[in-house]
Design brief:
InterPro entries: ExoRNase_PH_dom1, ExoRNase_PH_dom2_sf, PNPase/RNase_PH_dom_sf, Ribosomal_Su5_D2-typ_SF, RNase_PH. It is found in: Cytoplasm; Nucleus. It is a single chain. The chain is an alpha+beta fold. The chain has a domain of 142 residues: 2-Layer Sandwich (Ribosomal Protein S5, domain 2), CATH 3.30.230. It is built from three helices and eight strands; from the N terminus they run ββββαβαβββα. The strands form two sheets. The protein has a five-stranded mixed sheet with strand order 1-2-3-5-4. 33% of the residues are buried. The mean pLDDT is 84.
């Protein structure tokens, strides 16, 4: 029997990896009786952070961030001239696309963007716009592509911070950096989350997103925790950008 070189040398039969995953679903406990999270963090303690600027050589600006088990990559291209007449504006525009990799979650994501990804892309754009000097590139747009490689929670907050560092790394003029942070409503309610985009130098909020039902007093407390955590992250972001431009600073 002749060998068919057009076929890939793979097994003729395959099984879904989900068949080998335990189906025993235990309720997720954010905080145990010792006031510790499942990953060992205390209540109010931020995730371990690793961030690197200049992760994609072909892009004008790029960054990679790890916040706990969440891993996000961002690449910035442009500014590029607007080609369509209906998109013409004397003020620059941001075009953001946030996409979850197909392997980023336990169950495979689709290649095409769903409604959740489109909504998160709009939130990302609205959060970054107040920090970018859009009048510096009229009749042009800046393309920002964010890929969530692993979703371990707080993906939007990680995307905001990562995109901000990528824009700054690309030499795009900004009024301030944007640092994202998400706070989960702690027990006994566990009803929602609050995500904030914070401008640390001018001390302003550029974006605020709340999911789930929360009492107004709890929302205010979560907002304060987000701002405080963003201030703690700011020196880390500064050092990352300084290391990325060692020969451009006096």
């Amino acid at each position: 029997m002749s060998k068919d070189n057009r076929r890939l040398p793979v097994p003729s039969e395959s099984k879904s990896p989900y068949l080998f995953v335990s189906k025993d679903k235990k309720p997720t406990v954010l905080v145990d009786e010792n006031h510790l999270r499942s990953d060992g963090r205390k209540v109010g303690e931020i995730r371990p952070i690793y961030i690197r600027a200049g992760a994609v050589s072909q892009a004008r600006g790029s960054a990679y961030i790890e916040m706990g088990q969440t891993k996000v990559l961002c690449a910035v291209y442009g500014p590029r001239e607007v080609t369509r007449r209906e998109d013409f504006s004397m003020k620059g525009q941001l075009k953001c696309e946030l996409k979850f990799a197909t392997f980023s979650r336990r169950y495979r994501c689709q290649h095409q963007s769903d409604n959740t990804e489109k909504d998160l892309s709009m939130v990302l754009r609205d959060t970054l716009e107040p920090a970018v000097c859009l009048d510096r590139f009229p009749r042009s747009h800046l393309d920002i592509f964010v890929t969530v490689l692993e979703d371990g929670g707080s993906a939007l907050a990680a995307a905001i911070t990562c995109a901000s560092v990528a824009i700054a790394r690309g030499g795009i003029e900004m009024y301030d950096l944007v640092i994202g942070m998400t706070v989960y409503d702690e027990p006994p309610t566990d009803n929602g989350t609050v995500t904030v985009g914070w401008l640390p130098c001018i001390e302003q909020i550029s974006g605020l997103t709340q999911r789930g039902q929360m009492d107004i007093s709890i929302t205010k407390e979560c907002l304060k925790q987000c701002v405080a955590s963003c201030q703690k992250m700011y020196p880390v972001i500064q050092q990352t950008l300084i290391k990325a431009h060692p020969n451009k600073l006096e």
